[in-house]
Amino acid sequence: MIGIFGGTFDPIHYGHLRSALEAQEIFGLTEVRFIPSATPPHRTQPATSAEMRRDMVALAIQAQASFICDSRELERAGKSYMVDTLVSLRQDFPDQPLLLFIGTDAFNQLTSWHQWQRLFDFAHVVVMTRPSFTRQPLDDFFIARHTEDPTTLANTRAGKLYFQAITQLDISATAIRQLIARQRSPRFLLPDAVVDYITHNQLYETN
Ligand code: ATP
């Protein structure tokens, strides 16, 4: 089973890395693919180039062999739609279950994603929740796909919706960018190699 973590990663931080590791251990993922969004469809274009955001992901995960920096969205023109990414991943991995991890915020917006129903043709969707999370009522589309049995995810390649409580450290890329703009240190919120890259390239120094 392969885990997929998409994001802007502007920059990647320990909130992303810790939850990915926890997900890997819970589901027994053979690998976790971090996929920086080149041109995020749902937000203003990040100030940091996609190549730099990709480089920071690569630096952050270099010591964890099962974590892969997947830059396929940088190789496509136009908006980075997740459905196109899943089509491409499915071509590369025809037989493996694919688990697309999204936060609860993303799940609440999921029906605004481009061709969102088709996501389930190519992957399972795992919503990372907090322990106290109360779920919104699911509509018929989601009820039909919802499972509470994790073994179903391993036995089918795609098509299920699953909710999993995952620790979410109180770290955000926005807060890191704001710290740096105020000349405060972001150390210990993200890997040292990424801090060094940010310093070297003078990223986020102005808001
Ligand atoms: P920003 O503050 O710029 O919005 P972010 O820190 O939320 O950035 P993104 O790259 O937008 O990071 O997020 C990518 C994915 O990581 C999303 O699915 C988001 O829910 C998840 N995520 C972000 N922060 C955390 C965290 N602290 N713990 C677990 N998951 C997180």
Write a concise synopsis of the structure shown.
This protein is α/β, with parallel strands linked by helices and 207 residues long.
What can you tell me about this protein's structure?
This protein is α/β, with parallel strands linked by helices and 207 residues long. It has one domain: HUPs (Rossmann fold, 3-Layer(aba) Sandwich). Helix content is 36%, strand content 15%. Strands 3-2-1-4-5-6 form a six-stranded parallel sheet, sandwiched between helices. α2 packs antiparallel against α9. The chain is globular. The model has no long low-confidence stretch (mean pLDDT 95). The structure holds adenosine-5'-triphosphate. Adenosine-5'-triphosphate binds next to α1, β4, α4 and α8.
Blueprint (SSEs and pairs):
Elements (H helix, E strand, L loop, with lengths): L1 E6 L6 H14 L3 E6 L13 H12 L5 E3 L12 H11 L5 E6 H5 L10 H4 L1 E6 L10 H6 L5 H5 L5 E5 L7 H9 L10 H9 L7
Parallel strand pairs: 1-2, 1-4, 2-3, 4-5, 5-6
The site of adenosine-5'-triphosphate (ATP) has 17 residues, from helix 1, strand 4, helix 4 and helix 8.
